[in-house]
Amino acid sequence: MRDMRTITKFGICLLLVMSCEKDKKDLIAPSEVSDLHAVYNISTVKLIWIDPLDEDLAKVLITYEDNIIEVAKGIQTKEFNNLEPEVNYTFTIKTIDKTGNQSEGIQIQCKIDYRQKFIGQFDFFSYYWTVCMGEKSYCDTQLFIGSISIIENSDNLIQIRYREGKQTTICGEDSVFGAHIEPQINQIGVLSYPRVLKCSNQSYFDGKYSHIDSIYISIGSGGQAWQHGQFIKGTRIE
Question: Are 171 and 200 in contact (CB under 8 A)?
Answer without folding.
Answer: no
